[in-house]
């Protein structure tokens, strides 16, 4: 595939994201479906992720270069302009190639007329780069690469940390592994990585975590196919530590992972403890990923596609032939709730384009329904762990405070002396760390015995 064609594919894949009609969730599969050669797939992915990551600034620069905005039907040409700017500013692509091959890619999206427009805009940017960047950077959301609504929310929530949080959001997240302690130890696996020439170090907080100095293909990892190791951020691995007091020494404890896909937390619990675990997800396709994850790791769980927010959850669990719904309730429930994803923007930079301020209230309402519904499935004395990959209080500390206020038999048991994160109401908040863990929130709740 020519360089021009690779850029054309990237532009096509960005169109639904730019128009807030799609995401990069299936980017790898979409790139392959377009017939991109193996050697070019990393380049296309880097272009798509990079444009989304820097979108607020790139879009502002594009507006300065255009006499009038492109019509929606020409969003592919807009995407090419953003791709060209991103290459000139952030990639080691020779400037002449960034300009000529991006402009030439207009033919690849069936818009040959746009070749001259793109060429003119990108060459003008080369001539006036310093002045144009200084002009757009007067606007803080542009300078910090965040949509205005999100920047405002971060400043309000974290007045002493919002700038560091923005900087972390604008970097690519590190590749972090979780060692399967049923098969090996972290120290032993670090030695295997060293022998394979892969530089890595132990995570600071997660006992099974290893952070790589640079990302690699998973099949370059020793023993990955055999289930020795998985990819999982350090923040997500802390789930098992918080549930340990409820699960250690209780073989066969009945656990329900309510929003389990893609299965990393379910797998980690099964690696750490001997459980009777039911994993569910509302999306059967995503639930299939949980099954594939567990199969690779040699682990077993019941899989059940259901809506955990449904008022008929108890009835559905009772009728399902492949799910154990104990009459006394589950001993532990994990609710990794649907959320804004504001703690993992660096891994899903399309959130900057697709998420809206109005989404937060809708998500908070869904989280509240899930909490109330799942609480009824928890046995007296049982533990519910609430988790999000968000850094917004409305989904986290405020959500848990409201739940405790309306739930007399619930009490918070989140430890206050943890080495990681910071106290946030009745929970624990990790903010996205540059070169470290993702942003995450946890609150541990116990159902008081009658």
Brief rundown of the structure:
With 450 residues, this protein is an alpha/beta fold.
Tell me about this structure.
By secondary structure, this protein is α/β, with parallel strands linked by helices. The protein folds into three domains: 3-139, NusB-like (N-utilizing Substance Protein B Homolog, Chain A); 176-231, Sun protein, domain 3 (Alpha-Beta Plaits, 2-Layer Sandwich), CATH 3.30.70; 234-447, Rossmann fold (3-Layer(aba) Sandwich). It is built from 18 helices and 13 strands. The strands form two sheets. Strands 5, 6, 7, 8, 9, 10, 11, 12 and 13 form a nine-stranded mixed beta sheet that branches. The protein has a four-stranded antiparallel beta sheet with strand order 2-3-1-4, with helices on one face. β5, α13 and β6 form a beta-alpha-beta unit. α4 packs across α5, α6 (95-104) packs across α7 (114-136) and α9 crosses α10 (162-169). The longest helix is centred in the N-terminal third of the chain and has 23 residues, at 114-136.
């Amino acid at each position: 595939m020519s360089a021009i064609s690779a850029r054309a594919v990237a532009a096509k894949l960005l169109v639904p994201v730019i128009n807030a009609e799609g995401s990069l969730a299936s980017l790898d599969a979409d790139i392959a479906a377009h017939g991109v050669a193996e050697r070019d797939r990393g380049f296309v992915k880097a272009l798509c992720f990079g444009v989304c990551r820097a979108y607020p600034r790139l879009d502002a620069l594009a507006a300065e270069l255009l006499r009038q905005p492109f019509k929606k039907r020409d969003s592919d040409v807009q995407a090419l302009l953003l791709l060209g700017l991103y290459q000139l500013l952030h990639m080691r692509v020779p400037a002449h190639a960034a300009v000529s091959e991006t402009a030439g890619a207009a033919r690849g999206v069936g818009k040959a007329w746009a070749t001259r427009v793109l060429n003119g805009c990108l060459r003008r940017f080369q001539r006036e780069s310093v002045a144009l960047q200084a002009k757009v950077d007067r606007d803080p959301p542009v300078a910090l690469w965040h949509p205005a609504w999100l920047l405002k929310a971060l400043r309000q929530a974290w007045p002493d940390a919002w700038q560091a949080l923005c900087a972390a959001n604008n970097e690519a997240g590190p590749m972090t592994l979780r060692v399967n302690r049923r098969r090996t130890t972290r120290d032993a696996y670090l030695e295997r990585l060293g022998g394979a020439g892969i530089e890595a170090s132990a995570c600071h907080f997660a006992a099974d975590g290893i952070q790589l100095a640079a990302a690699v293909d998973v099949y370059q990892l020793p023993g990955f196919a055999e289930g020795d190791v998985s990819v999982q951020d350090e923040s997500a691995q802390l789930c098992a530590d918080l549930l340990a007091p409820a699960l250690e020494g209780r073989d066969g404890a009945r656990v329900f992972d309510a929003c389990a896909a893609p299965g990393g937390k379910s797998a980690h619990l099964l690696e750490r403890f001997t459980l009777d675990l039911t994993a569910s997800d509302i999306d059967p396709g995503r639930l299939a990923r949980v099954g594939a994850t567990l199969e690779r790791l040699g682990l077993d769980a019941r899989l059940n596609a259901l809506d955990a927010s449904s008022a008929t959850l108890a009835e559905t669990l009772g009728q399902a032939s492949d799910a154990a719904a104990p009459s006394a309730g589950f001993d532990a429930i994990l609710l990794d709730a649907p959320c804004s994803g504001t703690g993992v923007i660096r891994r899903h930079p399309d959130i900057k384009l697709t998420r809206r301020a109005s989404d937060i209230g809708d998500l908070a309402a869904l989280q509240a329904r899930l909490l109330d519904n799942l609480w009824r499935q928890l046995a007296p004395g049982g533990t519910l762990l609430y988790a999000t990959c968000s850094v917004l209080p409305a989904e986290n500390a405020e959500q848990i405070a409201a739940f405790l206020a309306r739930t007399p038999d619930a009490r918070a048991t989140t430890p206050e002396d943890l080495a990681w994160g910071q106290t946030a109401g009745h929970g624990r908040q990790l903010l996205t760390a540059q070169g470290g863990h993702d942003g995450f929130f946890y609150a541990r709740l116990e159902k008081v015995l009658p």
